[in-house]
């Protein structure tokens, strides 16, 4: 089954690029992101999306790339093409060639992109290319990003006092932090479900995390677990590419709260990222509001990402927002129907 699926994906590729060359190209970009790797496409290809590796190349190599996911829209509106945390191109002309290739290869009614955080010296004028801001995001557009280039003491000094205290208590306890193996996934998934129920957000099933582990852990990530006397109290999956580490998945138990397992575990994950010479640690996802609103409401709200904001805010990072989501219509009629359905709340948010 897997071989047939991989062969189908190769046949759909507009310009076939070897996975190693693709990964190297992505890693060199100022906005290098895990979600633009071919492995992420293979993950999503098993769970409700079709994945296309679309590239523009010349004799010198890659000029542009876009890991593109495609999903059928509700109400038989057609298909949406989606580029998470990308794409990448070396010039405006290469970007325009990429949009044409995506439309041709996917047959989508429109393209949605979420470019992520622009690099300081990067210009990406999406409006001039026909894009418009989208009312529907897929990835969380706002996050807290920690600068981890300094010493451990410097990173600690930027945190609030409560977070520093909890880290030190956790490190002084009998908590054991270790690297998880594949056989630990069942316990990790159970803890993820418990955390999702407690904080009112949806979680992926065990098959999803097995696929994450098999595709991404060997080269790009680690699963760290915190245990006390053999009992699993917390777990994280963290990934790194091109100088940035992402805390994508995390779970914790309410048991033995006095050892602050999540704090010791997160500090270990930051240490892992520093060993890989990452400069940034992305806490990945907080409610999409300005800081004044977040600070005024986080003690009272526990829905969605509000439940984790109180934890993430204390780590001394910078609250930042990505460029958000942008849409490029290929069929203006279908795109107008999509916008109308969104306004009527007949299309919900897609699961990241």
Would you kindly provide a written description of the structure presented here, covering whatever features stand out?
- The protein is of the alpha+beta class and 352 residues long.
- The protein has two domains: 159 residues, 3-Layer(aba) Sandwich (Aminopeptidase), CATH 3.40.630.30; 180 residues, 3-Layer(aba) Sandwich (Aminopeptidase).
- Helices cover 37% and strands 24% of the residues.
- The strands form two sheets. Strands 1, 2, 3, 4, 5, 6 and 14 form a seven-stranded mixed beta sheet that branches. Strands 8-9-10-11-12-7-13 form a seven-stranded mixed beta sheet.
- β1 and β2 form a beta hairpin.
- α6 packs across α9.
- The longest helix has 15 residues.
List the helices and strands and how they pair.
Elements: H1 2-12, H2 19-27, H3 38-44, E1 50-58, E2 61-72, E3 79-84, E4 88-89, H4 92-106, E5 110-114, E6 132-133, E7 142-147, H5 152-157, H6 161-172, E8 176-179, H7 185-199, H8 206-220, E9 221-228, E10 231-241, E11 244-252, H9 261-275, E12 280-282, H10 291-297, H11 306-312, E13 318-321, E14 326-329, H12 332-343
Parallel strand pairs: 3-5, 11-12
Antiparallel strand pairs: 1-2, 2-3, 2-4, 5-14, 6-14, 7-12, 7-13, 8-9, 9-10, 10-11
Helix pairs in contact: 3-8, 6-9
